[in-house]
Amino acid sequence: MLLSCAVAGGASATPARITVASYPDLDRALKLALPAFARRHPQVQVNVVTLAHKDHHTAMTTALAAGAALPDLIALDMDFMGKFVDSAGLEDLSRPPYRAQTFESRFARHAWRAGVNRRGEIKALPVDTGPGALFYRTDLAERAGLRETDLTGSWEGFVDTGRRLKARTGAYLVAHAQDLKDIRIRAGLADGEGVFFDAAGRCQVQSARFRSAFALALRARDAGIDAGVRAWSNEWSEGFRRAAIASQMMGCWLGGHMKHWIAPGTSGRWRSAPLPEGVAAAWGGSFYAIPVHSQQKALAWELLQLLALDRAQQLAAFRSLDAFPVLLSAQDDGFLSESIDFLGGQPARLQWRDAVRRIPALAIDRYDAVADEVVRAELDQVLLRRKGIDQALADAQAKVERRVRRRA
Q1: What single DSSP character describes residue 387?
Q2: Distance between CA 293 and CA 64 in Å, rounded?
Q3: Residues 6 or more apart whose Cβ sits within 8 Å of residue 272
Q4: Is the distance from CB of 309 to CB of 112 less than 8 angstroms?
Q5: Which of 25, 228, 230, 388 is deepest in the core (most CB within 10 A)?
Q6: Contact 333, 316 (CB under 8 A)
């Protein structure tokens, strides 16, 4: 869908034009910034090209490979950053005239690091992030006689709490055991480390982190506390609406989705808690990058700075779209202290801010998506076919290394 957002009027016969490629709902945050951009450049027209999330990233991958049909500014999601962070088709924003490294201290560490490759090249700037949280239903917890600390103290306690919840209410504690693995493999990582690969590019899926994560997921499945439904499926949404699933660990933006379309009839019954054992992790995040072949790099850079470095713009996106800001100055706004009706009046944004500031600045690898797909498939073999964990991880390591060699 091509949305021609003429942010100018002007009398020039040949006004400048820049094109921004984005996806829902990030394009809505972009449009919030267009009036401010128009005041600076009344003769510039901004065309916003919006495609569905996956289609957008596929189209940008193809365009960058071909070096043709490229916009002037590209939106990128955290889940796809591994594919783009080493791209020779994107400007290195550490070089003149950008020198984006001078802005590093203004951003949340983990979000900044995700746009920087292992060579120190800055390929994208972040505009929002998704600090992880544990959303849980207080009505089900009360029926089962559970406290929030029963969910957050330890993973062993989390599984035991799920057993009690199931026995007393019939509800599953989590949607899928894979969700526990996704968090556990990120526990204990330090700045500069990667989830799937180390600094030398060696696959790490046979490490103790992954063995513990697989064992935790298997314990949850054996305890009968997961519903075995995937996120974003109809069964997943229905589970929340019908009180069949009592919690979900995901980015803070899930609260907004719950309120608006997943389970609006459950308002007031949810709360947000820290992730078990104090793990700090991010779900998603949004970035913008400038293609090398952009025809309007100066204007694209100015619009990117408005999106990434303007406090008012980030707060507007936060208020409208639940897009948690990456600018530290925006995280100190009074809006974060306001109560959230859907969460029973809880001022949960303060909790999310604490999580943002503890998330490690992990390194992104271009093969992360490959490794994630392989690891996910091998855990399914463990959960569904009782494959041994050590064998599953050995097979995962071999498959990842084989696929990486083919793509290198």
Answers
A1: -
A2: 9
A3: 133, 134, 135, 252, 255, 343, 346, 348, 351, 352
A4: no
A5: 25
A6: no
Q: How far from 17 is each of 21, 38, 43, 247, 294, CA to CA, in Å?
A: 13, 12, 9, 47, 11
Cα 105 from chain centre: 21
Average pLDDT in the chain: 94
pLDDT in tens, 202-217: 999 999 999 999 999 9
Q: Domain map of the chain by residue range?
A: 2-130+283-336, 132-281+362-407
Give the three-class secondary structure for 165.
helix
Q: What is the CA radius of gyration of the chain?
A: 22
Place of tokens 């696959």: 203
For residues 141 and 149, give the distance between their C-alpha atoms in angstroms, rounded to a whole number.
11
30-84 pLDDT, tens digit each? 999 999 999 999 999 999 999 999 999 999 999 999 999 999 999 999 999 999 9
Residue type, 315: L
Residue 388: half-sphere exposure toward Cβ, Cα within 13 Å: 4
Report whether CATH 3.40.190.10 matches the domain 2-130+283-336.
Answer: yes
Q: Give the residue carrying structure tokens 């949305």.
A: 3
Which residues, including other chains, have CB under 8 Å from residue 103's CB and lie 6 or more apart?
Answer: 125, 308, 309
Looking at 252-402, which runs of residues are DSSP E strands?
270-273, 282-289, 324-325
Determine the straight-line distance between the first and last CA of the chain, rounded to whole angstroms. 34
- Contact criterion met (CB below 8 Å) for 276 and 219: no
Q: Give me the sign of the Cα torsion angle 193, 194, 195, 201.
A: negative
| Long-range interactions of 166-172: CB distance < 8 A, separation 24+ | 166/224, 166/225, 168/143, 168/144, 169/140, 169/143, 169/144, 169/243, 169/246, 170/244, 171/137, 171/140, 171/243, 171/244, 171/245, 171/246, 172/224, 172/225, 172/226, 172/227, 172/239, 172/244, 172/245, 172/246
The domain covering 132-281+362-407 belongs, at the CATH homologous superfamily level, to Periplasmic binding protein-like II (3.40.190.10)
Top pLDDT among 217 and 9 is at 217
Say whether 3 sits in a helix, a strand or coil: strand
Both tokens assigned to 379 = 């855990």
Q: Record the tokens describing residue 408, joined without a space.
A: 């290198």
